[in-house]
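Researcher: Please generate the 3D structure of the following complex. Treat every line as part of one assembly.
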Amino acid sequence: MTRRNPRKYIFSRNIDNFFIDVNDAYKFLIRFFKEFSKRPFHHQELIRQSYEIGLKSLPLITLTGFIVGIVFTKQSRPSLESFGATSWLPSLMGIATVRALGPLVTALISAGKVGSGIGAELGSMRVTEQIDAMEVSAINPFKYLVVTRVIATTISIFVLSLYYSFVGLIGAYINIDGTEGISVISFLQDAFSSIGFLDISTSITKSIIYGFTIGIVGAYKGYNATQGTRGVGRAANQAVVLSIFLIFIEELIIVQIANFIRYF
Amino acid sequence: MLEYNTNGNKAVISINELYRSFSDEPVLKGINLELFKGENIAVLGRSGSGKSVLIKIIVGLLNPDKGEVFVLGKQVDKLNSKELNELRLRIGFSFQNSALYDSMNVFQNLAFPLNMNVKNLGKGEVNDKVEEVLQAVGLLEKINQMPSDLSGGQKKRIGIARTLILKPEIMLYDEPTSGLDPVTSGEINELIIEVQQKFNTSSLIITHDLTCAKNTGNRIAMLDNGKFLHVGKFEEIAEANDEHIKSFFNYNFIQ
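Model: Done. Output below.
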């Protein structure tokens, strides 16, 4: 990243650096799409990263999804009980999990676990000259390190998000069955009766966009890390903060678009 | 001091009036140097004198502000990425901190550049080449170890082995003896000479260590404040009537 000489700011140091950052991030994104379509495709590294990012996140996603499913059902019951509508619980949980909780909670957990991991790993490789070592060995480090990680993150978070919804609904079913007593078939019929094509396609779109955001932000921050070990810590931290910030902005925009389509 | 006669040999690296600055702070101020085939030049200078910047420009990691750098007849900053990669395959770069990939073991570190750059290479051939270079640096027994299990000197040797696996014509060493004890430094110096003789390479050795410069360089280029104060044999530089050179030599212990 280029930083301006202190004596030559156009606006002020912070404003100038903000625009330089935006420009660098834009170039990084464009480079990703250029490199993405070029050969060679590093299949082995992609599989390895998918394992590291996806499979190793399964225990955390299982635990979180299950607990949130139970807790959300428990928290929603009193409100529905007050006007005798506890039978709506499966439907409510279906909508909540598929439309919002699945993609959003998976993305937030992954931003902390995966985004910080990518930021720290690439940052550490940058400051210890491992990325330069690849470059001087005629290996394209961007293609090998960044492209594979971003694709692996996008695919993994999409799959994890589906898995989270599945586990969340199991948690909700266990709680509803324990209190109201309901068969699995009835629960699933009720839960999916209110979910339409738009809900599922929006949920899939969200999880793909969130996964891409987490991957590209983590890679961008790590790949451009500077100033030794302090820079590695900062890259990991900024990867999480910026990913979460962008995920909420994206959530807002996607929900607005989905609602516009729904009520059009 | 190694004897070398440049007569008749072609320059493999030619640097003409090279300038480079960072945030308006000049680091290199019009550098000229020629490295001939089969020759070792030690670039000697204090920390921050621009030595590392110089070799990063040679290998295309940094671009010059002004001036020309020709490596094996090609002007580095005018090459496209494909041409630059083809050139890089003919240059070995040994990093100051070895820069071994810490998620890979020694074998994987060495096989990685080979697998990525040489197509249709069988597993047996990769194994043979890895073992050959590990043998050359005397660390065959470390083949399955992780970089974190190696000492500083061993990491340097493995780093050198990794560059040798692609059979480079030019070796660039960035501070090969920094952070090492005198005995290990001596072993690395010997290894640099062995590499030159066995693999027939030409080398540029960036160092602030007089002993390393004296023992590995056919010629010494004394860099100070972005300019070469003197380029010549070690004895000539040691006797040069220049205050900066004298003070540098006075602060160093020569073996």
